[in-house]
Amino acid sequence: MKMLLTLAMKEIRDGLRNRWIAAAIIVLGTLALALSMLGSAPTGSIRASALDVTVISLASLSAAP
Fold first, then answer.
1. Tens-place pLDDT, residues 7-26
2. Other residues' Cβ atoms within 10 Å of the Cβ of residue 12
3. What pTM, to 2 d.p., does this model score?
4. Given CA atoms 43, 46, 51, 56 in this order, what sign does their dihedral have?
């Protein structure tokens, strides 16, 4: 278990050094904010609530590769 923790910490340090983690957080945060704003837009003839649209959009964002 200690080896796994050591390896995970090394990968996190390497990711921060390469700025990949920060870039991914910024991109996903921006997409989540955009989806939240678009979720309050009119939803057409389906008449789904804005909260439903936002939750489904954020769930699909988190499932995207």
1. 999 988 887 787 877 788 88
2. 11
3. 0.48
4. negative
Residue 61 contacts by C-beta under 8 Å, 6 or more apart in sequence? 28, 31, 32, 35
Domain parsing of the chain, residue ranges? 2-63
User: pLDDT digits over 49-59, tens only?
Assistant: 767 777 777 77
Please give, one letter per residue, the 3-state secondary structure of 2-65. Answer: HHHHHHHHHHHHHHHHHCHHHHHHHHHHHHHHHHHHHHCCCCHHHCCCHHHHHHHHHHHHHHCC
